[in-house]
């Protein structure tokens, strides 16, 4: 008891001593955080990424998908305020052909497929038994009905036969349960019915998810939002039985080629962002390995992957047994120190949704970030078999991991904020339509508005773009004059209110740290990038 109390005090002190600055949004290309070296998760991820020769973050994402599939039927996570969320995850890896997506999936999802195959063989036998039992039941029902009708025709009492039929109805054999765990190519209606008719825990899995994004699978984005949240879903049907899907759990572990997800964003981006569908995903665009593999892959040692695979099977079997016995999921709580740390992280993310902060143009994503971080912490805690409450170390790792996924979301999925688009366009127009002399451009607003893009002709849009250029230090307004002066470099000597690349990045302007290397810190890594960088990173 004394040791437990001492550990709790130390954990609280550790949580209080962690400054917010320890958790900045990381740079694209920076090293991903690693978990405990002796953990099942870390050992498997390192070994598999080395064996398959893929980026660490790609292997970690697929591993988390398999782990969430195994854990989601057993545990939920409880926030410090008592709010409870599932441990299901939605993960999306964007990688080109040749990145060995199928081989990677096989390493982590192999045990799940094997268990499903075993259950399918059992199901076939149980279906044969069921058909035989059903036939016997139907034969007995026919005899009872025939006797009851004969008694009715002879004007005899039928109450006894009615009672026997009612009792017989209760003995009708139930069809065997299909313990299907993986769905690969489906539709919203087929998926919801399968989760209702089979078991309510599953994974939407694909190493080539292009058909899911271009086909009918994601026609109903709100359905997947509800499944991610664990909400009840009412399905009304005209030609078949209506039903309510309660308390189902669905993890999505998808891999897709970057150009396909880009086409999806071009076609349905507004709907996918507006509905909150994309905000629920953990995205990663891993470092491409095609053309950079110089050695033969190392052998995958059983000692590295077997503990992971055995744990997957163990948790899935326990999950199935809980369903059969109608046991409820456990609620995982955070330790005292982890609760303090959780609240600090939550406040940090909330503050970053303010104007000029990193999530100002991605509030939907930010609102789901602590949810995803909590889920990952719960999955890691359960999968590793840690006792008691989720501790600060597990939560801190999940947070760092979540921030890396967040960086990839902002750069590749969130899209360029309108203010950045307008700012870049205004810079182009200033250069084209203004008077240039001695390194500066002189103009009045009316010179620009006559020939600029229709959006910039609106006073509010033009004002916002001009204000951004002023705050970035590239635009000055002469006192008592309508004339404005623009420079490709920052006006000095004071530092500008905003530094290009820190919060916003206008690719038409040089980065602040390129102009002042001694003051900059590669600020582009924390700024909103323009759309064109998506393709550049995968050329």
Features:
539 residues; alpha/beta; five-stranded parallel β-sheet; 51% helix
Describe the strand arrangement of the main beta sheet, using strand numbers: 4-5-8-3-9
Terminal Cα span = 59 Å
| Beta strand count | 14
Instruction: Give the fraction of residues assigned to helices.
Output: 40-55%
The secondary-structure class comes to: alpha/beta
Uncertain segments of ≥5 residues (pLDDT<50)? 520-526, 530-539
Net shape: elongated
SS summary, helix count: 18
Number of domains: 2
The largest pleated sheet is described as:
5 strands, parallel
CATH class of the largest domain: Alpha Beta
Content of β-strand = 5-15%
- Average pLDDT confidence is 88
Q: Give the CATH architecture of the largest domain.
A: 3-Layer(aba) Sandwich
Alpha carbon gyration radius:
29 Å
CATH T-level topology of the largest domain:
Rossmann fold
In short:
The chain has helices spanning 2-17, 40-52, 56-71, 101-153, 159-170, 188-197, 210-214, 221-229, 258-274, 302-324, 336-351, 363-383, 392-412, 418-433, 445-449, 459-471, 512-515, 533-536; strands spanning 75-78, 84-86, 90-94, 182-183, 201-206, 233-235, 243-245, 249-256, 282-284, 330-332, 435-437, 440-443, 475-477, 484-486.
